[in-house]
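Researcher: For the record, we're logging two predictions in this thread. I'll number them. Prediction 1 follows.
Model: Prediction 1, sequence and structure:
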Amino acid sequence: MKKYILNLTALSNGYFEVHEEGCTYGTRQKRERLGYHSTCASAVRMSKVIHPFKKINGCIYCSYACHTT
């Protein structure tokens, strides 16, 4: 299982990204720890439950399977 975080700074397209902890594209500031998940899909789902009005996406580099835009 991998540890995931949510970047709380939106990208220019308005999306917030879920990253594996340690991803060089994830910020070390303004982030929320999501804990351990077996897949990025589980981490994205959890993020959407916590933040239902935010557009959330997986990082194209570390969570490509969950990257939708």
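Researcher: Logged. Prediction 2.
Model: Prediction 2, sequence and structure:
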Amino acid sequence: MSNIIIDVITKTILETVYLTAVIIVIGFILGVLRNNSLKNLQRRFGSKSLMITGFIGVPIHELSHGLIALLFGHKITEIKLFQKPDANGTMGYVKHSYRKNNLYHEIGNFFIGIAPMFGGTISIIALMRFSIPTSYFKLIKILEDGLKFRELNKEVFYNILLSYKSFLENIFLIENFKNPYFYLFLFLSICIASHISLSKADVKGASKGLGVIFLLLLILNAIGFSNLISEVTIIKYNILITSILILAVILSLIIYVISIILLKLKI
């Protein structure tokens, strides 16, 4: 009996990791890049740099929270899309209420918390569609190819990275520099990606939902419903999530490099 319990708990832990680990790890990386980038920009240009990037990035961040909150049946009680940083550095917020005895509402906390990572990335992809469509279609091809893999290993991850190397080269083609919309895309992408990471409040909210997701999986495994989702489906889910969020990491890394260059140039 004890072995069965241990097996169920172990399986649940692994499934929770498979479903959320990529998001958590990339969220941490985005947070580190964002904090250091903004620190460099503030040292170079002062607090006004936050307002310039925040004017575009913060509303998208907060709207992402709000949209997913509504999707999971939460009631939005107050929303502030953009403001000057307060004493805690807050530039926007979404306050929402929900029924604590509602499983769907509780699980929603996780997705509400991580929403800006996806809302920001999807916004950048949409911008790409209208400003540099060739790069957009190459990205879509990468995402489609990723869904053809049936296992997740070093070789698959390496192939995804190679695809993104080619994708980056495609973004910075000579022809794009002759396109005025390309510069608009770069500016807006920098603004959005500068505010794509999660705040402490976001992480705290997401952690509530994470615990409920674990308990739900534990119950499903305990009653024998663990095979409802196939291993291949989970693998494809992870590849898709990784492929989408790698774009956010790449853009955040570019912003970090730009912030270092601007800090060193002292123009």
